[in-house]
Amino acid sequence: MTPDGRDGPGEGGSGADGSGTDGSGTDGSGVDGPGTYDTAKAEELLARAAGGASDEELLARAARDPASFEPLVRRHSTALRGYFARRAPHAADDLLAEAWLQAYTARRGFDADRGPARA
User: CA 29 to CA 58: how far, in whole Å?
Assistant: First the structure.
């Protein structure tokens, strides 16, 4: 314990390992434990980092304000390009550009009542 009464590194915490968690993955990190990953929690953290807007909110705004589409591109381009690069390494950039062009063109047709943007 530190002089001010807090647990020091490797001490205390509520978890048996001293991590401050109970091992249930509810520490808010988006990681549920070794080898697991809570996608919903990670997306929530990304949304907060991007001004709190979810993908669905950004798409709804983009129907009226095309500039609202840009955060979606910044948020998802790295993962999307990686996906294309693993499947078609020589065409990944072209596929990424085409995917964003199609998504931008169809942005006015997004309906949150039909499900999330990533479905």
Answer: 24
In the chain, alpha helices (H) = 39-49, 55-64, 70-87, 92-105
Q: How far apart are CA 73 and CA 79, in angstroms?
A: 10
Identity of the residue numbered 76: H
The answer to whether 69 and 58 have CB atoms below 8 angstroms apart is yes
Mean of per-residue pLDDT scores for the chain: 74
Element (H, E) at 62: helix 55-64
> Quick one: DSSP state of residue 36?
B
Q: Is residue 76 scored above 70 in pLDDT?
A: yes
Per DSSP, the three-state class of 33 is strand
